[in-house]
Every structure is written in structure tokens, then in C-alpha cells.
Amino acid sequence: MPTAATIAGAMREHYGFDDEACGFFDFFATPVPEIEEQAVAALQAGIDAGRQSGEAFTYGRLFQAYELMFWNTIADSAHR
Fold first, then answer.
1. Does residue 64 sit in the same domain as residue 77?
2. H helices of 1-80, where?
3. Tally of structural domains, the chain
4. Sequence-distant (≥ 6) Cβ neighbours of residue 38 within 8 angstroms
5. What span, in angstroms and rounded, lies between the C-alpha atoms of 20 and 48?
6. Is 11 within 8 Å of 21 (Cβ atoms)?
7. Closest CA to 29 of 11, 9, 1
8. Which domain holds residue 80?
9. Which of 4, 62, 65, 73 is deepest in the core (most CB within 10 A)?
């Protein structure tokens, strides 16, 4: 599956897209070294606020499902 950086590069090279048009892919092409700490802090904030863990789990799974749909759509389009 292509990476976000590969897609952004291809959009620029083959289709002439500018930085603004490639911004989404540029954003996700950049690693976030503190991502685990941010995730833990977000979860802890929810726990401290008394939010139900089942609700957080549901939203997390939805986010993953939507992301997977997005990347599968890109991959499926590339194979046509």
C-alpha cells in the first residue's frame, strides 16, 4: 500500500498538484514521535473526566475503520 509521502509526491509529479492540495498527505507523511504519549494523555483525560471507556473504544474503532476505508479506496483505485 502506498504511503502518504508517496501519494503526495505522485500527486505533485504526475498531476501538478500544489502544496495546499497535498496538505492532507503531507500531514500524515510526517512521523509524530510523541504519538504514544499523546494517546495516553488523551485516554487519561477521559478517565479523569469520568467518560465511559466503552464509548471511547467505539469512537476509536470507528476512526480506525474510516481510515482503513480511505486507504483501501486508494489501493483499490490504483489497481483498476
1. yes
2. 4-15, 23-29, 35-48, 53-78
3. 2
4. 32
5. 38
6. yes
7. 9
8. 32-80
9. 4
**What grid cell was written down for 78?**
490504483
Residues 6+ positions from 53 with CB-CB distance below 8 Å: 46, 47
Residues 6+ apart with CB under 8 A from 22: 8, 11, 12
SS3 of residue 52 by DSSP:
coil
Same domain? For 62 and 44 the reply is yes
- Cα torsion at 13, 6, 34, 41 (round to 10°)? 100
Report field, pTM of the whole predicted structure over 0.70: no
Joined together, the cell numbers standing for residue 15 give 498531476
| Residue indicated by cell numbers 473526566 | 49
